[in-house]
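Worked example (supplementary).
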Amino acid sequence: MKRTRVRNILQAEAPFGRIMVKGWARTRRDSKGVSFIELNDGSCLANVQLVVDGASPAAQVLPEAAVGAAILAVGEMVPSPGKGQKFEIRVEELTVLGPAPEDYPLQKKRHSDEFLRTIAHLRPRTNKYGALLRIRSDLSFAIHRFFRERDFHYVQTPVLTGSDCEGAGELFRVTTLDGAAAGEAPRAGDFFGKPAYLTVSGQLEAELLCLGVGDVYTFGPTFRAENSNTPRHAAEFWMVEPEMAFADLEDNMNLAEALVRNLASFALEQCEEDLALFDRFVSPGLFESIRHTAETAFVRITHAEAVGVLAASGRDFQFPVDPEMDLQTEHERFLCEEHFKAPVVVRDYPASIKPFYMRLNEDGATVGAMDVLAPGVGEIVGGSAREERLDVLQARARACGLEEASYWWYLDTRRFGSAPHAGFGMGFERLIMMLTGVGNIRDVIPFPRTPNHLEF
RNA sequence: UCCCCGGUAGCUCAAUCGGCAGAGCGGGUGGCUGUUAACCACUAGGUUCGCGGUUCAAGUCCGUGCCGGGGAGCCA
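After joint prediction of all chains, the assembly is encoded as:
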């Protein structure tokens, strides 16, 4: 007999007859002559109710069928006489596949996020993390669907890189040698014969690919060795990085906005049951906020205009508002959470604070960069038009102190058939944070990697 | 890395001015003819994060280390 998923049972129009279910007991309630087991198999948030008659042979194994136990049940699916569920299963055969002794750490009641992080191997069995995993899965699919509908190619860029000019933070060194000390120069005999790192971005390689096959995107893990201790940073996280050929900053902003709004709509349509948990317990008003993101055009301003808004606000910021400097977190929060109360796209940043590959604007002082700032999570997208003019690119790289020899291949693409192109990176975990209202990145990734944390 | 806050039962927390360490939930046992985070009764459960100090007396005050959280920087 093939097992039936709980999701299919709960969505059924009519009973299926005699079925088999397998899952984990979330709770058991005993009366004198009857016991109820709430069974969850991860196919959806809700449980199916198993009804065990106290006089039936199945009742013999009830003591083992405690909270947390893995259970197999066979019985008749029938309309439920009780309130709270359409159908239930009258159990005929009950088998405990894997008992859960009394030291099973998960209670029927709510646990703190901090505690659950210490048992990340068991937290997928909670409602909240089960919901998060399903939402991550659905949104991954939605990302692929979004780009496929727009004729993008899904490309794979390397995780191992020899390029140290990526300009996006500290890198993890990769070595096969024992005793490679921190800060030590790479030694002879190492695997690649040159320093190797974990990638901080697939962007540079995605650019090369986009200049051959047109619009592409990557979706994969990236690594930052920054000692960042905040609820929004992890050392390993997933990024979506589209790169468009023959595109400019305007195209880039349009794509970023379309992507974020499309994913918000998708979440509302496909993840409603799971999102309802977050709307109720984690972030009241979440549905309204997602709907607003999906339906409302993003605010678009230049960096200079943003500085003007901040200066005119009369607000006493801790850091000065300076047209030559980057926006501070307090500035970004003010813009999207208080002033505009919506996602804000800020463009045309001062060249001096941005990496060499961003396209220099006609004013010679700013670059065609754009960040999407989202209420609650801050920068969710960062991107730019890429500098396609060889001489300008070389001058910018020199100003940033880069050696031409280490990125000759990148320059080659500007030497041969160079074309305008643009792209961005969207942090997948930050998107999930925005769409679930979860405040800590460690709670939207199954096994978070942060400074001093490499458990599981 | 810097600043602030915290660490008490398995979990979530309380403990007044330094004066006998507690509750709810969870666990165990028993009860209850259909429950919905079931309910009722009884019960077990403590290195108050570690080390050092002040004091007649420290969960409480001081020093230090470790761990957690929030904010900042860096960024997605």
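Two points are worth noting when inspecting this output. The mean pLDDT of chain A is 90. The CA atoms of residues 284 and 422 of chain A lie 37 Å apart.
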